[in-house]
Write a structure and sequence with these properties.
homotrimer, about 300 residues, alpha/beta, Rossmann fold, 2 domains, four-stranded parallel sheet
């Protein structure tokens, strides 16, 4: 029996290096299969999704992943505007969706929502983003991309730039990187530094240095992970406008970087990366999106098949 | 040829006991098939849905039912907010949807809408709720649940509690129960009793007693069917708040019931049934939801296969 | 290799008569296949859709077409109200959707949007309506319907009536008809005549006469193509109300037409065609909708299979 069979994917903190490497191997296997072989993996299986916070991109990534392995998807892409919200509890909604599907994908604003869901659901639950810290499948996708493009994760110098306070992607990535021996540089404006209440948890797992200056160590980085400065997180638009241009990655900056460094971004981007970077060999964010589809397909294949695939 | 082939499912009044028992047998058969066998039943067939009144739950029940038997679904989950509403007639919308699919599921606010739809559609029409009285697949699901959990329907004492005035589920269930020899108790506040204009139709089919007191005959019931008091049906919020707590089913009440009695609910519930009832052996509302999926799969399988399955 | 393999469908102007006839032949072939054979054509392939302008009907036509040939669909049916709109560029959205799918269907308000999309997409792009002129699959559907119902296109007298100014369907149809030797009559109120800036392009392709009087040449027409006068295009409701009844096709008018003439309409209709026309042998607009599904299935089959089907 494979260790992920019928398992929930709640937090990236639940994964050690060995777990991650197994998922990476399964992802590689998926990518090497012929489409017709892939479609046997979850043939006729159904993925149910419940998005309490809309995220078209993550939903489509799961949907296309499930389609690629022969399954189908159904669910509610915006629970708050759906008729489900007639005062029904999350527990009941989860229970019903778990009747309609073989595995459940949940996105929710609250920390702990997926953990709770996994307790009431008869079917495995996959956290597609919850609260302020957790987006485990995004973190696995990011780690897989680094591994795939740099051939290793250990020993790399990794810069993470942008809004480090509000983006849960960053926290999940940091917890995931904690399984590897990496040198992490966090670059952000003072007001968008890692939240102080998460520092302890992160420091338990890895060392990092902080800076407000993107150019400072740019020539040493193997990986530059760029994040969007999300307008909707700012109470004040003026503050947003002042900050959003601070860390734009363009060709000028790229010239200062190692020639084999890679640029990642969880997407969507606004203007943090200039479009003329897209065609360089360093730009790997679209590959990252594609790997995300295969990582999710691999996870679903492992969760839904007793003996793997 | 099976008698349901290419037939419309418009009203529960069109079904006699023999029809119902055939659907129950088909549902049992579906439940006993291996998933790969099930998926042959409607392989490659398409279900079209048109929801003029949103109902995520019913839509997902049909969608997952169709997926379980190998088919797929497409349609409009909220016609009122869709571009279809550029002044197009219901007849035209139905005709077009019947081109895109092998069978049509319709939910509509108006009585008679499904009957009308079946007249203009080239494909069989399934009523997924119309007007004030009809929700035939819910009624079949409810009857199947009773049969499955109590091994019979004839001879049972069945209490139906809550908002009996506005919930079409109750009317469909009563018409369906009219095929059996049952003893029905209707329990509701005075202001939420069965509508007087439906009394004649119901009395033609079965006898019932009415009461405002849930505890009165609680110890005699084999089945307690609980319904939600729907806030959106009340012109006055104060009136709603006064009534909604009147018929809460909790462990205290359950203790007064027969040990092998069952509690049903069409879901979603708000607080009519206390969550601590969920884990008792009497709670069968989640089973009821699951049976609903299989009942719908059975109906679709019968409607779309000349020789049944 | 078939000439449409991995090709974009951007403008009806890109199609010559030979291209069109090949698509018609492929459509005929699709219609003659058994459902189980059809479903092999795009088995396991995924169609991605992006609708920046909602159009339930066109989306469902593509969705059902893809289902009929064994593929599945995913995407965003209303981009403007989706979370994708966090300031992401069209180019990025297209690139991501092209990762999730084997071909892309795009509807967009802007002229040139599909051409642009095809340049950034790794997968073939199909224009499902853009700007003021282009809706190539609708035009192919219309031409196929005429061919199918009249056995030919060359030599026919074709009247197009209604709102000729704002409906892009009309422009696409005219450009498509430019490949044939047809006699075209354009009938509209003065204020809704063909836009002057398109006249040159149309006249390069075909000759037409203009009139405000529908009855004038009605007895000569082989095909009457009726279009809706779209309320949402009028700045002034009074102007709309004055005009919308001007060209209603009823049984009276039909009596003046050749007995083997056909009435087409891209649908949805409001009251441009009286419902009592529906049952006459001249009414072919529901057939037209059905052909549209098969035309789209044929196009997808050609685009996604190197050696056709």
């Amino acid at each position: 029996m494979n260790e992920f069979y019928q398992k929930d994917i709640i937090s990236i903190k639940d994964f050690d290096k060995e777990n991650l490497e197994k998922i990476f191997a399964a992802t590689d296997k998926i990518m090497n299969l012929a489409p017709s072989e892939r479609r046997e993996i979850c043939k006729g299986k159904t993925l149910g999704y419940l998005f309490y916070e809309p995220s078209t991109r993550t939903r489509l990534s799961f949907d296309s992943a499930m389609a690629s392995i022969g399954g189908n998807s159904l669910g509610i892409s915006d629970v708050s505007s759906s008729s489900t919200q007639k005062g029904e509890s999350l527990a009941d909604t989860i229970r019903i969706m778990s009747i309609y599907s073989d595995a459940l994908v949940l996105r929710h604003t609250l920390d702990g929502s997926s953990r709770f869901a996994s307790e009431v659901s008869e079917k495995p639950v996959i956290n597609a983003g919850s609260g302020t810290e957790e987006h485990p499948t995004q973190a696995i996708q990011d780690l897989f991309t680094i591994k795939k493009e740099k051939k290793k994760i250990d020993g790399l110098k990794i810069g993470i730039v942008g809004d480090l306070k509000y983006g849960r992607t960053v926290y999940s990535l940091l917890y995931g990187l904690g399984n590897y021996d990496v040198d992490v540089r966090l670059i952000s404006p003072e007001s968008l530094k890692i939240r102080s209440d998460s520092v302890y948890e992160i420091k338990k797992r890895l060392d990092y240095t902080e800076s407000t200056n993107l150019e400072e160590h740019i020539d040493e980085l193997d990986v530059l992970y760029v994040t969007r400065i999300q307008k909707e997180r700012f109470p004040d638009e003026e503050e947003y406008l002042k900050l959003k241009g601070s860390y734009v990655v363009g060709l000028d900056l790229l010239k200062q970087m190692k020639s084999d460094s890679i640029i990642l971004h969880p997407l969507p981007r606004i203007d943090e990366i200039s479009p003329d970077v897209d065609k360089t060999q360093n730009a790997k964010y679209f590959e990252q999106a594609e790997y995300g589809k295969h990582v999710r397909a691999a996870l679903l294949g492992l969760i839904l098949n007793e003996n793997g695939f």
